Amino acid sequence: MKIAVVGATGLVGTVMLKVLEERNFPLTELIPVASEKSVGKLIKFKGKEYPIVSIDTAIALAPEIAIFSAGGTTSLEAAPRFAEVGTTVIDNSSAWRMDPTKKLVVPEVNAHVLTKEDKIIANPNCSTIQMVVALQPLHEKYKIKRVVVSTYQSVTGTGVKAVDQLMNERKGIDGPKAYPYEIDLNVLPHIDVFQDNGYTKEEMKMVKETNKIMGDDSIRVTATTVRIPVMGGHSESVNVEFENDFDLAEVRSILENAPGIIVVDDVANLKYPMPKDAHEKDEVFVGRLRRDESHDKALNMWIVADNLRKGAATNTVQIAEYLVENKLV
Ligand code: 2RA
């Protein structure tokens, strides 16, 4: 199995390589791909060194799978060219997510929709992924009517420039800015660009992608997405209104037994999910489970995950694992 990692030198690409290595992905040849300025540089993987190649070289090698984290423009141009030579592309950009001909997949929720014919598969937005992992098992039991979510997102979701901005500000050093305002000691209720309806693109991603992944347009979602000066993971305060009555102990047990979730919910001992603990972990952490006392069929919870792992690299690799295990490539 030849696997290409497109965008291998970026923040997510680097984590993709780490996750492929850690999970012992069954590959025989790694093809790291990056922009022209990195071509020829060596990438270390499982004790061996692999030269970075260009997109054209990688396409000529016709890998079985290409995992992409190279931005929307590169993906729109290169993913169809890989698909033409028989490669299955799993793309981490937003380019294909809402294309009705492409599947948007979180393995714990909807891997079953994948077929051999899917040559370009979309990986959802980080903040959507961690939320739907927790929503799906509850939806199956109680049927979700409405979700109100506010996010607290790590600067790593923006990229290296944002991490540098935060660290430089912390040290009092001037430097390039990823955000229109200071991020250290600040909170920006603004992720991605503003739309005509007053919401940001990130907020609308959470609405539309949730419906698509869960395969249910009747679930109403409203989101406020916020950048905070944190690394390690995204956090979310989520209010869920169900159609049916629910029992809090049963909710806890459903989540404890759901795939990919770790419940951390013991407030008597001050145990709740935090980005510092989720950092470098592949699971979604859920806690602060409590009834919404203003509504008898609503629940409040707090969801945290490493946005570069489950929110990006790990989810992509899990899709690749599913394709291999089910002989879909
Ligand atoms: C963010 N959603 O955190 C992005 C990353 N995909 O900004």
UniProtKB/TrEMBL annotation:
The keyword Cytoplasm does not apply. Its EC number is 1.2.1.11. It holds the Pfam family Semialdhyde_dh. The keyword NADP applies. Phosphate binds at residue 97. InterPro entries: Asp_semialdehyde_DH, Asp_semialdehyde_DH_beta, NAD(P)-bd_dom_sf, Semialdehyde_DH_NAD-bd, Semialdhyde_DH_dimer_dom. It comes from the Bacteria. One of its GO terms (molecular function) is aspartate-semialdehyde dehydrogenase activity. Pathway: Amino-acid biosynthesis; L-lysine biosynthesis via DAP pathway; (S)-tetrahydrodipicolinate from L-aspartate: step 2/4; Amino-acid biosynthesis; L-methionine biosynthesis via de novo pathway; L-homoserine from L-aspartate: step 2/3; Amino-acid biosynthesis; L-threonine biosynthesis; L-threonine from L-aspartate: step 2/5. CDD domains: ASADH_C_bac_euk_like, VcASADH2_like_N. Substrate binds at residues 153, 227. It catalyses: L-aspartate 4-semialdehyde + phosphate + NADP(+) = 4-phospho-L-aspartate + NADPH + H(+). NADP(+) binds at residues 9-12, 37-38, 307. Catalyzes the NADPH-dependent formation of L-aspartate-semialdehyde (L-ASA) by the reductive dephosphorylation of L-aspartyl-4-phosphate. Belongs to the aspartate-semialdehyde dehydrogenase family. This is Aspartate-semialdehyde dehydrogenase. It comes from Pedobacter helvus. The lineage of its organism: Bacteria, Pseudomonadati, Bacteroidota, Sphingobacteriia, Sphingobacteriales.
